[in-house]
Amino acid sequence: MAASTRKTTRKTETFTDEERAAMKERAQEVKASARRSSRADKAAEDEAAVVAKIAEMEDGDRAMAERIHAVVKASAPGLAPKLWYGMPAYAKDGKVVCFFQSAQKFNARYATFGFNDKADLDEGTMWPTAFALTKLTAADEARIGELVKRAAG
After folding, report:
1. pTM reported for the whole predicted model
2. Looking at CB atoms within 10 Å, which of 9, 54, 99, 103 has the fewest?
3. Cβ(66)–Cβ(52) under 8 Å?
4. Other CB atoms within 10 Å distance of the CB of residue 136
5. If phi over 0 gives left and psi between -120 and 50 gives alpha, with beta otherwise, what is residue 115?
6. Interior angle at CA 138, CA 44 and CA 151, nearest 5
7. Helices (DSSP H) in the chain: which residue ranges?
8. Is 21 exposed, middle or buried (CB count within 10 Å of its CB: 0-12, 13-18, 19+)?
9. Whole-angstrom distance, CA of residue 17 vs CA of residue 82
């Protein structure tokens, strides 16, 4: 009985298959980035990787990711698209500012658009850093554009 309990305990302390896959993707991203020669090549390859990752998504998430990609590029052209744990992300000075996580990434109920601590969104003592998305309206896109512009500083 104790061995069975121990096994269950270990399982709860390990990563899920999805989390392990994300970590492997991140390791591959870091290796690929180190192999690139020029900044222009790196930027072009990073953007192509983001567009390819978006194309792999299921229909609903893909449509949202395509719109978010366009909104981020228009709102904060200084942010560089890149993959981050296998997710489309946008970085400033090499640090991820914001990212899109499809619902299928971790078998979630909804997609997420989030901001990392590099984002300049501080507002008092509490502010949101991630938003659940089931679809995007024009108002949502406008709000995301404003937040991204502010986050990029």
Report:
1. 0.80
2. 9
3. no
4. 20
5. beta
6. 55
7. 2-12, 17-35, 39-56, 59-75, 138-152
8. middle
9. 23
